Amino acid sequence: MIKSWIIFILAAIGIYIIDQNIKTIFLAGWRWDTSCISLTLVFNKGVAFSMFAFLGPYLKWIQVALLAGVLGYIIHGKYLQRYSLPLGILFGAGISNIADRFMHGGVVDYVHWHCGFNFAVFNFADVMIDLAVGWLLIENLLFKKK
User: Fold this and answer.
1) Which of 19, 33, 100, 109 is catalytic?
2) What dihedral angle (degrees, nearest 10) is formed by the CA atoms of 138, 139, 142, 146?
3) Three-class SS string for the chain?
4) Rounded average pLDDT over 83-87
5) Rounded distance, CA 46 to CA 127, Å?
6) 5-54 pLDDT, tens digit each
7) What's the CA gap between 113 and 104, in Å, rounded?
8) Active site annotation includes 19
9) Which of 19, 33, 126, 130 is catalytic?
10) How far is 98 from 7, CA to CA, in rounded Å?
11) What is the predicted pLDDT for the residue at 32?
């Protein structure tokens, strides 16, 4: 069980550090534009596609409560032994985006895909959250223990 906690904590810290360092580059003013993708600083006051932005400062506290619930679920369930890496990735990315809300008033996003259609602006932590959720879904749907 200790090995699972170490993997969880190292994954969470690693994702947090990587994400915050990438965001620092954009906060310093770096940008890059092409006809398909723009890497430029945007502060997202909501969640995906700026939904729930009307909640303002309450949104960060709702997200803290949700992430605390996830942590409680991890602690009291038997999930950490099997899913320590994807859960660590998910938790680290979630903490990083929540930290942005406290430090910058919104999540620091910077990847804007606009080749053929306009897509939401997102960041490394968002990609890691999607990866972790996909990993957990595949593990549970395709490789479920009998």
Assistant:
1) 109
2) -160
3) CHHHHHHHHHHHHHHHHHHHHHHHHHHCCCCEECCCEEEEEEEECCCHHHCCHHHCCHHHHHHHHHHHHHHHHHHHCCCHHHHHHHHHHHHHHHHHHHHHHHHHCCEEEEEEECCCCCCCEECHHHHHHHHHHHHHHHHHHHCCCC
4) 94
5) 17
6) 999 999 999 999 999 999 999 999 999 999 999 999 999 987 876 778 88
7) 23
8) no
9) 126
10) 22
11) 96
Domain range holding 102? 2-142
Assess whether 109 carries a catalytic annotation: yes
Residue 146 has pLDDT above 80, yes or no: no
Q: Is the pLDDT of residue 2 over 80?
A: yes
Strands (E), 45-114: 107-113
User: Going by DSSP bridges, is the β-strand pair 107-113/37-44 parallel, antiparallel, or unpaired?
Assistant: antiparallel
Gap between the Cα atoms of 17 and 111, Å rounded: 18
Cα 12 to Cα 71: distance, rounded to the nearest angstrom: 12
Average pLDDT over residues 65-79: 86
What is the number of domains present in the chain?
Answer: 1
Report helix, strand or coil for 8: helix
